[in-house]
Amino acid sequence: MRAFLLVLLTAASPLFAQGDFAPSAPQNDPNQVKTLKPVPANTILLPGALPKSSDTKTAVPEEGNVHKNVYENRYFGIEYAFPDAFVKQFDGPPPSETGKYVLAELELKDRGSILITAQDELFALTPGDAKYAREHLPSFYKLEDVPPELKAGERTFVRYDYTSPVAGLHWSVLSTEVRCHEVQFVFTSRDTGLLEQLRGGLTQIKFAETDAPRCVPNYARAENLIYKVDPVLTDTKYNPIPVRVIIGKNGKVEHVHVISAFRSQAGIVIDALLQWRFKPYLVNGEPVEIETGVLFGSEKSRKREPGAQSIATD
Prior knowledge:
By secondary structure, the protein is mainly β. The protein has three helices and 24 strands.
């Protein structure tokens, strides 16, 4: 989940003897200039895995933004107004190789937080829905007896609440499915009254009517392909590379969204996929635009079959 990978080279003296590289200025003061200490000797910073798209016009999940007290996301069609007292302090990490997104982190100092995430179901290692998470909650948490659903923005959210008796913290989790993603709101606080207020505010969330393509898992199978070019990855080729593609009515790939890949990989994958041709996907005999997934790289570490067509590169 880190944007950079730290590679430490062997040195005769202790590595951190020459100073560390933590910010010297407090991170909670937006008006103070942050001065970084020198990187230790014998240390190399390498760029890590990041998302990349074939164009900048097509909406992608990670491009949501916070303006004043509203979180908006074109990909999911979300417009969510949260209480004015909550603020966004930091950007979340880049999406993971299993298609997990941190869309927004909002905080009310010393009182609570709002975490908005999305799990791409085409690449999840476990089911991303709230029902599965509720049934597999660790034993040191205590589930609370609450209504299992909440209506918000003309959608049904699956709900479960739990608490940590030791820490005195309470969580309220609400999730709904959008474009084969499990979009989740996690409210955290010691104040149960605040949690009730946040759940009430969620009922005002808006989901825009969009002409988003239909999500079709595993459509990139051999029987649906007319022509393909495999990406040739010459180095760092064993990491999973999850990719979403939009296929037009004519079977041509219109958009490629590499969710997580190293810089040297992303361009190669995009160039290859833009040459793929598919049989048009038909609904009632008429071709329609669809969205599906392709997973490049090693599958040896996965415990669950993905909803995206897997293509080994090793």
